[in-house]
Amino acid sequence: MTLRDAKPIPNRPDVRDSGTVPEPRKDIERRGDAPERSPQRERPLISRTFAAAPATSNGGSSAVTPRDSTPSYAAQRTETHAEVEAETHVLTIEHFNLHYGKHHALHDINMNIPEGMVTALIGPSGCGKSTLLRSVNRLNDLVDNVHIDGAMRFRGENIYAKNVDVIELRKRLGMVFQKSNPFPMSIFENVVYARRIAGERNRRTLREVCEKSLRGAALWDEVKDRLDGSALALSGGQQQRLCIARAIAAEPDVLLMDEPCSALDPIATAKVEDLIYSLRGRYTVLIVTHNMQQASRVSDYTAFMYLGRLIEYGPTAAIYQNPRLRQTEDYVTGRFG
Ligand SMILES: Nc1ncnc2c1ncn2[C@@H]1O[C@H](COP(=O)(O)OP(=O)(O)OP(=O)(O)O)[C@@H](O)[C@H]1O
Ligand SMILES: [Mg+2]
User: Fold this and answer.
1) How far is the C-alpha of 267 from the C-alpha of 260, rounded, in Å?
2) What is the value of pTM for the model shown?
3) Using CA positions, which residue lies closest to atom 24 of ligand 1?
């Protein structure tokens, strides 16, 4: 059977008898524990005049141009579990399509991201996970010949509206890439970079931010005696944790992480997973991972993508233990992918 003609499976029994995927963590802190948001986080990305831009407008960015929708986009509806819809959503994605030239990479994505939760994006290589993540903070603007239509909204504001401040957008939706990208400067300056750009000059404050962020990224003990040394002299795994520290030091609302642990050893991976786990409540995390155990351990919700489509999206425990669609089951049990 191909994935396209898979049928829903009503009331499926537990599919994880093979024991290949661990139980998701149950001791999840809920959003009610979240501290007050700082006033800076409530700043609009765009003037209110543009906040209610139509859902199909992309606002005319230089590289990204809209295309008309075609009926073929609606080939398969996403199976979205009710629990996702019951949450408060920080990001909403509506009928979002993306083409790289003639290649239709994202098909009619409809997805709401719960606030203060960790959502994992899973799916086989090439299914569009990174493309979707990059679209959220408009990194695809930098790619030639990209065309989008549909809408993405951050706290109700159209991310692709004409007058959106893309720099501000990327501050609010910080990104950690699969390949680390430390700046050619000291470890200290890397971590506090966003704070400096924002005008923070108080050395003590910057030191506090640096230590807290490096501790959060499980790197403090390894670098505390060489903060003025070059970030480029760190090992690959250390550089990746430095980039995570830099991202959290900027205090984004949403942390977008594209396979952040793929270059890390098991110990560093465990530390970063602990970090991601501890961020819930304070931050919304959208994380791409190929590691099912990781998705299962760190996320509240899991979204399964295949061939550019969002197939099934629901609570992590349900996606792994009781998926509604056979293609989800086939993927999470390792039958393909
Ligand atoms: N800059 C680009 N130009 C053209 N095609 C691209 C570009 N980036 C990605 N694609 C294509 O879009 C599709 C989705 O790619 P994407 O990188 O989003 O997949 P992915 O799910 O992140 O895969 P992986 O798990 O291997 O990282 C692929 O077919 C890929 O070849
Ligand atoms: Mg990718």
Assistant:
1) 14
2) 0.80
3) 125
Whether 149 maps to a domain, the answer reads yes
Instruction: Give the closest residue to 57 by CA, choosing from 161, 138, 156.
Output: 161
Residues 68, 300: contact at Cβ < 8 Å?
no
Ligand 2 center–CA 35 separation, angstroms: 32
State how many domains the chain has: 1
Q: Are 251 and 279 in contact (CB under 8 A)?
A: no
Residues in contact with ligand 1 (CB, 6 Å cut-off): 100, 103, 105, 123, 125-131, 143
pLDDT band for position 258 (cuts 50, 70, 90) = very high
- The total number of residues shown for the chain amounts to 337
CA 115 → CA 62, 263, 285, distances in Å? 30, 28, 9
Residue 101 lies in a domain: yes
- In this structure, what token pair is assigned to residue 209? 């931010």
Contact status, residue 304 vs residue 137, Cβ threshold 8 Å: no
Nearest Cα residue to atom 25 of ligand 1: 125
Q: Cα of 205 to ligand 2 centre, how many Å? A: 36
- Give per-residue pLDDT as tens, 6-56: 444 433 333 333 334 445 444 434 333 333 344 444 566 654 333 333 333
The CATH number given to whatever domain includes residue 133 is 3.40.50.300
Residue 232 makes CB contacts below 8 A (sequence gap 6+) with 182, 184, 239
The angle subtended at Cα 276 by Cα 200 and Cα 24, nearest 5°, is: 165
Residue with tokens 């390792």: 334
Strands 254-258 and 284-288: parallel
